[in-house]
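Known limitations

Files may contain more than one protein. Parsers should not assume a single record per file. Below, a two-record file is shown to illustrate correct handling: read the sequence, read the token line, then continue until end of file.
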Amino acid sequence: MTNPVISYIIRNQVLATLIVLCLFWLAFELKEILIIVFISYIIMATLSPLSDLLVRKRVPHVLSVLIPYMLTITVLVLLILPLVPFFTSQIQQFFKTLPSYINQAANLLNIRIDASSINNVVPSDIETLGKNALDVTGKIFSGVFSFLIVLVISFYLMVERNSLRKQFSILWPKEHQGKVLKTVAQIENKLGLWLRGQLILSFTIGFATWIALTALSIPFALPLGLLAGMLEIVPTIGPIIAAIPAIIVALTISPTIAVSVAGLYIVIQMLENHILVPKIMQKAVGLNPIVIIVGVLIGSKFLGILGALLSVPFITMVFIIYKSFKTSSS
């Protein structure tokens, strides 16, 4: 049955425009909550294929939802969390040594830099960056409690996925309900493909960078590889930022090694763009690189690092909705 209120709003263009503007204002005011829900939705979309597979294997519905989350938590607890202290100590040691690396690189390039200013500015900048990152993270996640909220919301979205789809489709005129359900399914599929593909890319690039830098005997190869993997999630801009500290460290050894490291990052990026991305990410995103770069810049302007990270899945979702409405109108 068509919702008469929704039908009236659709027919009244002025009222529909006012409602859309109010929704944009409300979304801006509640952006922290909406980001938590959006992240929860992405996690649900990522784990849903495994849940669907278990359902097809006639596993009870509750277990088919619970098992993917239990596996995810188990991997985090057993494989990732034990490595956090080691990675943290490596990163702290790297940043403590970074001012001396910058000074040595400047001397090799015959650039005059006051050593005391490096020691004072770099740590303070890093400290400020850390405070800003913690501030953003605190506002969005509120620590461990909000992380648990994300998991709970994601779990609920998975349990009630089919029911929520039907309830959402009822809000639309009957002739559009099938299209709405199809669009929601496409969004879930694309977002799930994006996160799974991004995790694969981040691990592959981070691991390859670590191995290659170790082969070149570059100090701090592990944190530099970790940085490359983490920044891989920021399209186009991330790999460039990740290469800068590695080149600085390599310059302290010799200009030839620095050129080799720069070439290494270029080769890794070329292999990624021509082999990995077409096979892993093309089906998930399929966006124009210019659109991605502009989206990352806009996202970082409004929400900092988190905005840059979430810009691609958000733009992907908007494009799917736009194509769906364009097809319906034509």
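...continuing to the second record:
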Amino acid sequence: MTSRLLPLLACIPLLAMPLLAQEPSAVEIQDLSTRNADFAARLYRAIASTTDDNVLLSPFTVSLGLAALMSGADGSTREQLLQGLSLNALDYLRIPELFQSVRDSMAQSGFVNQGIGILPRQQFKVDSTYRDIVQTKYGGNVQGLDYSDGAAKDTINQFFSTYTREQVKEVVSAIDPQTQMMLITAVFFQGQFALTFNTSFTQDERFYVNKYKIAMVPMMFRSDKYYLAYDRSLKLGVLKLPMTGGAAMLVLLPDEDVDYTSIDEEITGERFQGWLKQLKRTRLEVQLPRFILEQSYSLQKVLPGLGISEVFQDSADFSGIGGETGLRLSEVVHKAAIIVDETSSTGNAHAPNIFASLPPRLTVNRPFLFLIYHQATSSILFMGRVIDPTKK
């Protein structure tokens, strides 16, 4: 009897397996975060290499969306998604539970507002089990849309505006009526620093955008004990700014004689983990520019370079989404917005102490990179590059 069951068990689809899954262990969660960090770095490098402007993306939100798509894929389409996401060494049947566990940990903090939408054409019948998995495991939504209807654009924008507290209002500006399926991810973040900057100490300072341009920007100030590291191989200062809710920002400031593009090329998940281990607490005066970023990317132009291409081809296998064939991904849109400011006008940020020996000062007055991560799981929520703080 047992021998007869084995072939049947091997054929149980991914959609049915999460119901049997056990609670992920801490080791599994750390393994997922390490792999997500690798994908985050590769995605950042791919996007940053295409522009000289500010950069902002949420690698974790993109990973969530693509992993949700993977749960409805089969065959080589699924294998390519796993490989591209750096998840190929994991048991793919465990992936939905792993992402849900990380999401649950983040939800307790409540500092990220994101929306994930898998939007096939309306004629495609979506399996209710798949719809439930995307919602419960990945926090996303699956909804059929009539792309030939001009109202589809408004439907999409309204959906993501709601999920981002109306901070991301226009995710798409136009839609091809021949669209087969879209994957859209949007996210907004405004965290509060655990060591708040007081607005009374903020003043306009010079920010050296490049050799030929200087911008005057509101520069926040605080003197306190911070965690700091220095990467000698890259000539890069690393400053940790803890945030409420369990997040933290890493500010990556290249030395004055170092081009930020050389840092872009060296960003890896392994380096991220190494910086965290090198951080040491020290008294420091910090000057950081206030900035607001909002960026949007069409990732169908980027993902093939990361090994994810079959999803866009007629040979794509998304039979797990609804059992039908002939569905392929037409567009992958990612939009992210972030506000970094004092977030408090009454914080007890320390002013310079003129009656004691002055601590070292770190003034972030030239192009820098940053990461915002969830400390409990080491998940990279945001990666960005600020070339000019006066521009979004």
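Parsers that stop after the first record will miss the second one. For reference, the second record is described as follows. Residues 26-48 form the longest helix (23 residues).
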